[in-house]
Design goal:
Elements lengths: L1 H20 L10 E10 L6 E9 L3 E6 L2 E7 L2 H11 L2 H4 L15 E7 L5 E7 L4 H18 L1
Helix pairs in contact: 2-4
């Protein structure tokens, strides 16, 4: 009986591990892998300015507002891999999609969207998300930009 349970657990572990890595875009052709967006409506709600950080599989990162790229930099192989490993780990991809902090009624909307090889994507975030895993991934992206500014 213990042997059957052990075999089942081992198979589940293998299936879970395979499912995490098979959808990561790694073609190196400049495809979008991950996008962070933050928006706040000031005054007229229709005049929303959206800040973005986009990570591409050619190991570049761009930043800007709305559809205008302000900055594009190269990312080291090590930094790129750390972000990809974290973002596409099951501990992040298994988060619920709506991470809104219900205690806050005003502020910015922040989202991280992961883009998978099969053409699907998954968007996490909401109004002032405070989820530790979400914040850590955002800080990893911002850290790359701060290194470039030095």
């Amino acid at each position: 009986m213990k042997k059957k349970i052990l075999i089942i657990l081992l198979l589940l572990l293998i299936c879970c591990a395979c499912g995490v890595t098979k959808n990561i875009i790694r073609s190196g052709k400049g495809d979008l892998v991950l996008e962070y967006t933050s928006s706040s409506a000031f005054g007229n709600a229709s005049e929303k300015e959206v800040y973005f950080i986009k990570l591409y599989d050619d190991k570049t990162i761009s930043t800007g507002y709305n559809d205008t790229i302000k900055n594009k930099i190269d990312v080291s192989d090590d930094d790129y891999q750390k972000i990809i490993d974290y973002a596409f780990s099951s501990s992040f991809t298994n988060l619920k999609e709506d991470l809104t902090d219900d205690r806050v009624m005003d502020g910015s909307s922040n989202y991280i969207t992961l883009f998978f090889e099969d053409g699907t994507s998954k968007k996490y975030g909401g109004l002032n998300p405070t989820n530790k895993k979400f914040v850590k991934l955002y800080e990893m992206l911002e850290g790359l930009l701060e290194e470039e500014e030095k």
